Structure formats: structure tokens, C-alpha cells
Amino acid sequence: MSGLTAERAIPDRPGRAENYLTAETGLASWLLTTDHKRIGLLYMAAITVFFFLGGAAAFLLRLELFTPEGDLLSADSYNRAFTFHGVVMVWFFLIPSIPNILGNFMLPLMIGAKDLAFPRLNLISWYIFVAAGLIAVYTLVSGGVDTGWTFYTPLTTAFSNGNVLAAAAAVFVAGFSTIATAVNFIATVHLLRAPGLTWFRLPLFVWAIYATSIVMVLATPVLAMVLLLISAERAFGIPIFDPLRGGDPILFQHLFWFYSHPAVYIMILPSFGVISEVVTCYARRRVFGYSFMVYALLWIALVGFLVWGHHMFVSGQSLFANLVFSFLSFVVAVPSAIKVFNWTATLYRGQIVFDAPMIYALGFIGLFTIGGLTGLFLASVPVDIHVTDTYFVVAHFHYIMVGGAVSALYGGLSYWWPKITGRMYPEAWARFAAVMMFFGFGFTFFPMFIMGFLGMPRRYHVYPQEFQVWHVLASGGALILAVAYLLPMGYLAWSLIWGRRAIANPWGATGLEWQTSSPPPTENFDTPPVVVQGPYNYHPEHEGPPAMDREPHSPQGGQPV
Amino acid sequence: MNGFSLWPPTASEQAARIDSLFIGLLVVAGAILLLVAMLLLVFSIRYRRGSSARRGELPEFLRRDVELGWTAATLFLAIFLFWWAGATQLRASDAPPNALEVHVVAKQWMWKARHPNGAREINALHVPRGEAVRLVMTSQDVIHSFFVPAFRVKQDVVPGRFTHMWFRATKPGTYHLFCAEFCGTEHATMGGTVTVMEPEDYARWATAQPQEQDLPGEGAALFVSLGCSGCHAPSAAVHAPSLQGIYGRMVNLADGRTVRADAAYLRDSILLPKRDLVAGYEPIMPSFEGLVDEGDLQSLLAYLESLRGEISR
């Protein structure tokens, strides 16, 4: 392995003297920038802070659950901790993570544009996001909320003594940032594609961000409405969900899940894009079934809106509704399966290199497959009735959103790190972290499937003795996982100063983003690029890649000749 | 209840059926996972950089037929699993008509159960083995969820409406009862035990409990003490509809609609009498909102149900 690395080592050659990082200096040049690349980095900074906060809450939860008694946290502080963990991780980490860091940075580069369609909207959406985040932190400092991130009524509107209004305000405001970013991405993909970049030549990452943006624009307003209704009932006593005054608490669940199920796809679709880029590059192979991959994304984005009722099989919903939602949930599993099969088939007859991004991607495929397959259990009404609101569900959605989305985030960050910073990350450390993340994740969350099936309900800070062995395994795994998440932050920061300088295209990748210097100049390309073919031409059409050589791959496009 | 195990106790008829579905899903999911993992492993080794494996163009049938094939196969598998799960659910959806009816009221943070003969218990439920038991549940405050892992049953308990679930226990023993829907500070301790007893033990247990009036009897007393009978009794002078046999019948409303006078309608009529007025009557009934709690409502409804007589059962 080391021989291969050495062979690919390219002599240190600094990038262009001037790039987007050095073009201007000073705090104001960052805080008032309209450069999508700099805003991507601003998002990275903010989102990392929230990842720390949400992770700290998770760490407290796992620590408490080491023993069946409530010896570390009181019932109230435990409830506040898991609510904070959920709210921060969902709205301030997972939803913005890949779109706002990697999407913001890469989308214009990948389609050959100078910037996003609305650069100033991009900046204001970062400020809105930070404002929302500050409200979320205020919520915590002012005592926290004890409703769970799902805000179920009438607990939230009439019974909770936490700071519900502040939490609702934080999520409400964050929604504007989400919508602004999504509108920006949609407009950019429609309007700013380079000459020759037709829709079916778009890299799958661009398709994934585009599909995600559409879901964001359509779903987020529903969340905003339902949060307003909650605030109206809690603050002004306007009866909407309160059954004592003719309201309907189940109505809340319909509105909430009509947003929150699509939100699951907001969290996972961008990772599909990252994995498609990484797998093709490190397998040196054209993606298997490009058009199926695109249709699968769109299918998920569409049908994802029609399955919200599978969160409500035990809510008292009619049997007929349960069966309809069950059917649609099974149907939405099909495109996800296609994606897994196609990634796997992309490896066939490839020339696979196990660099860190590829290890993250392979880990993603494994964990996402487990997460997706356990979704079949939850789509089956009778099984769901038993395991819903238990740790089985906790394990399931963490497999998708942490095993899946977070692995993809780390994989994508490593893959594009040379482009973003102009520095190479240390490969050996990165491989080690990727493997450690995979196993740490498994130790943490696999036991939860078992204890969930055994009947351990979620959101319990004390629990019967017999579940302890599983909780101890999970808490031990969480320790490994925490180290695996912190490690890349360490070596990536290290690489900023001591890392080898990156050339324009260190991986021999075909995307447009690699056809400019690393890091790119402020205007992205010296002259606007022209696209001549589809993505992923890692080998000539009627051949495969050679056994050893990196050539011949041909970029999607480049400077006009 | 203690000790290390990988499978929860199986103590109801549904549990056995759901377990076989669960095992089926495990086999299917395990097979797919194994397939994907094996392919990843084999391809990773065989096509690693520098290996001498044959590469070159993908055969045409692989690019089209295989893609279409596994899309169709996945879709058929999904539909098959839906059919299996749906059929399992349909088979167990309705309680048999002769089920033992136990009323459950949930509140922060306690379960109160009431047996047909008037026996009451808190955070515990005793049920006879082999007999269908139907729970009629409501909540006094927030949403709770009645969860007995050993029976594989769970049902949210929602304020302002009645939800139902039923089971037939098969194995004597003591099992966990959990609240599965987050309901506030003490959510984690809102639970207790469900005890399955042999039918004769259950009968002995039920009679040994402090006897109170049965539910309809208590409702009849409330009917008088709350003043309902002043208008609704057959002999009353006030022009109000008679409630004899009303339960479950269709009634015509003043606005022209026809509704079934089920538990939900009658409950609303007690709390919000002016909302769905019966045709031919003046809106003179006062609201009993705040005067009756969920337990009283259950008693009143049980009394009204008893008025429809044995014939309609």
C-alpha cells in the first residue's frame, strides 16, 4: 500500500500565488464576503461548533445510561439533554452539514460557475443560521426544553415547563436559512451551468443537492407553520391542538411528520451525492447506471412526501391509513436499494484504491444498508407497533443519519480537502480514523437494535436491570466513536499548516472542480470552462481502467480550446 | 424477567405471529446484507489496484438487464413484504366481541386500570390467560403509550379520545408495562407490571379486590347526581331526547347531518352540547366541561352503553 502511495506522490508544487484564501485578508473580508467558498468555510466553522454542542449532550446521555439508576443526571436534566441533542443535531448539524459546507463550496465549481446565483442571499442565509443558532444556545442557557425534538402536543403547548418558545423560535428562524440556501442552489443549477453541461451530464452530487433543495423548499414552510401554531397555543392560549378546548393533538403529528419525514431525506440525499463522487473516483470506473441513479434521487424526493404516516402507526390512526402508509414506505425503499446495488456494481472491474475517502464510502454503504434494511421492519405495521418508540428506532435512524450522513460528510471533506484548503491531509491517520469510525459506530448503535427489540423504550434515563449489558456496550462504543470524530478535526487542522501542498487534481478525478487550481482563485476559473461530456469518464467508453495506471481518464470539460 | 437474553418473552397470541414475521424479515434483510457485504468484499479484493483481474468493458446485459432485473426484484420483494405484514395486521385488528373490557386512564405519571367488575389497580394490570382482553384507554393530560413488550402490543393513549387495543395472553407470568410516548419529567418511571394469571386465579383475584360498583352502575349514580336524569329521564318534564338505546344508533342533527351516536359523539355531547344538536330540540343543555373528569366520562358512557339492552349486543 505504501508503495502505491509513494508512487502517486507528486512533487510539491504550490498552487497559484493568489487564491480565494489569500485574495483579501482581515476579519471584514470574511464576515462580509459574498464568495461561496468563503461562506462555505463560515458554515463549516458554525456547524462544527454545533456538532460539538450536540455531541457533548450525546456524551452526557451515554454516560448517564451506563447504569440503570439515574445517578448522573436528574430526570429533568436528562430530558433536556436529549431534547437539546436532537434539536441541535437535526437542525443545526445534519440538515445544513453537507449542503451548506460541501454544497456551498463545490456546487458552483462543479457546474463551472463563478459563484452561486445570489451571492448576497448566500451570506445573509449564513447570518440567519448563526442567529438561529444563538437562539438555540440561549434556549439551553435559559434552562432548556424538555419536550423531545418532536415537540408533541399537548405536552409541548400545555404541560412542558421548559423554554419551548425559544426553541421553536430557533428552529423557525433556521428554516429561513434553509429555504434561502435551497432557492439559491436551485437557481444556480438552472441558470449557471457551463456551456455543454446538460442536465444528464450533471455530476450526481449536483443532482443530489438539487433534489435536496427542492425537498427543502417544499417541506420547510410546513415546519414553520406548525411551529407558529405551537407558539400561538402556548403563548396566547389559542386552542389548536389542546383536546380540552376542541383541538386535536394528532393534527400536530400529521403536520410535524409531513415536514420531518422529508427532512430525513434532506439529511441523507446529499450523502448519496458525495458517495457517488467518491466511489467512482477511487474505483476508477464510470458510475453504474447513471440515469437510474438520477431517477432514484428524484423518486425518493417525491415519494418521501407521502410516507409521513408511518411515524404514527400507534397513534390511533385508522387501520386503512396505516396500510396505505406502510405500502408507500415499502415502495420508497426501492430507489435506496437501487443506489446501494449501483455503488456496489461500480466497483466491478474497477481499479480500486483504498484511500480514506473510499474507506468512508465503503463504510457508508455498509451502514446505510443496515439502516435501510431495518427500515423494512419499521414499514411493517405489526413489527413497527412493537418496536416503535424503542431503541430499535433510535438505532435505525442513527444508522441512516450518523452512520450514513456523517460518514459521508467526513468522506466528502477528506476528498475535497485538497481543493478547499490546498493542502493534503495525512493519509495514514485518515484511514485509521475512517476504520475506527466504522467500528465505533457499530459498537455504539448495533446493541440498540437488540435492546429495542427486547422492549427498551427510548427517552428513559432509568431502565430495568436486564438492559444494562446493551447500554454498557453502546456507551463504550460511543467513547470510540467520539475519538474517531475528533481525530479528523485534529489532523485536518494539522494539515492546514504542515500538510503537503496539493496540486490542482491530486486524485486524477474528472469533475470540473478539479480543473482549476487548489485552492481555486476567487472567480473559480481563469476563463469560464466548457463541458464536452458526461461525468465519471475514468476510462474510455468501451474499455475498463487498466490494472495500474491512472490514465487514461478524461475530465468532463475544461478551458475552451 | 431478568438475565441475559436476545429474545423478549413471548406471552400473547399476537406475539407469536409478529415474531414469525420478524424472523422472516430478519432472514430477508440478512440475505440482502450478506449479498451486499460479500460483493463489496469480493470486488474490493479482486479489483484492487494492481491486481491481475480482467477488466475491460461491462457486458451489455449487465448494464441493462441486471439493472432492470434488480429494480423489479426489489419492487416485488417490497410488495411481497407489504402483503405479508399487512395480512398479519389485518388478521389481528379487531377484538373478538366477547372480550373482557378493561378501562385504562393514563395521567402524568401513572396508569389506572378498572376491571368490568369494578376492581381497580394502579401501575398494574392483572389479566386471565387465554381470554381476549380489550383495553379502552384515554388520557387525562398528555399523550402516553401503553406498551407491553411481551405481548408485542403498543397503543398511544390520547387525551380527548378513546383508543383501543386487545390481546390474548398465553403464558402466566409477570411482564413489563412501559409508557412508550415521552410524557414529561417522570416518563421513565411511568410503568408497572402486567400479570397473566390462570383464569380461575384471575377470578379469585378479581373478587378479592375491594368491591366497588361496576362501571355502568357508577355511571347510573352519576347520571342522577349530576342532574342528567332531570331532563333525560323518560318521565322528565323538560323536552330532551331520551337516552334509552341511544348508544350506537344513528341520530339526525339539527343541521341536517346524520351521525352515529358512538362514544366519541356522546362524549362531545356531554362536554360541548351545543356543537352537534339533535334535530327537534332546543340548545338548552349546559356544558359539563370541568364538572366531569375522564373517569366519570367513562362511567357515564358505560352506563349509556348498558341502556341499549342485551338485544343489540
TrEMBL record, chain A:
Pfam families: COX1. Residues 515-561 are annotated as: Disordered. Residues 539-553 have a biased composition (Basic and acidic residues). Residues 30-532 form the Cytochrome oxidase subunit I profile domain. It is a multi-pass membrane protein. It comes from Belnapia mucosa. This is Cbb3-type cytochrome c oxidase subunit I. The keyword Magnesium does not apply. It comes from the Bacteria. It is found in: Membrane. Gene3D superfamilies: Cytochrome c oxidase-like, subunit I domain (1.20.210.10). Keywords: Electron transport, Heme, Iron, Membrane, Metal-binding, Respiratory chain, Transmembrane, Transmembrane helix, Transport. Belongs to the heme-copper respiratory oxidase family. The chain crosses the membrane at residues 41-61, 81-102, 123-145, 165-192, 204-230, 250-275, 287-307, 319-338, 359-379, 391-417, 429-450, 470-494. Its main location: membrane.
UniProtKB/TrEMBL annotation, chain B:
Pfam families: COX2 (PF00116), Cytochrom_C (PF00034). Its EC number is 7.1.1.9. Residues 214-308 form the Cytochrome c domain. It is a multi-pass membrane protein. The keyword Transmembrane applies. It is an enzyme of class 7 (translocase). It is found in: Membrane. InterPro entries: CcO_II, CcO_II-like_C, Copper_CuA, Cupredoxin, Cyt_c-like_dom, Cyt_c-like_dom_sf, Cyt_c_oxidase_su2, Cyt_c_oxidase_su2_TM_sf. Belongs to the cytochrome c oxidase subunit 2 family. Subunits I and II form the functional core of the enzyme complex. Electrons originating in cytochrome c are transferred via heme a and Cu(A) to the binuclear center formed by heme a3 and Cu(B). NCBIfam families: CoxB. This is cytochrome-c oxidase. It comes from Belnapia mucosa.
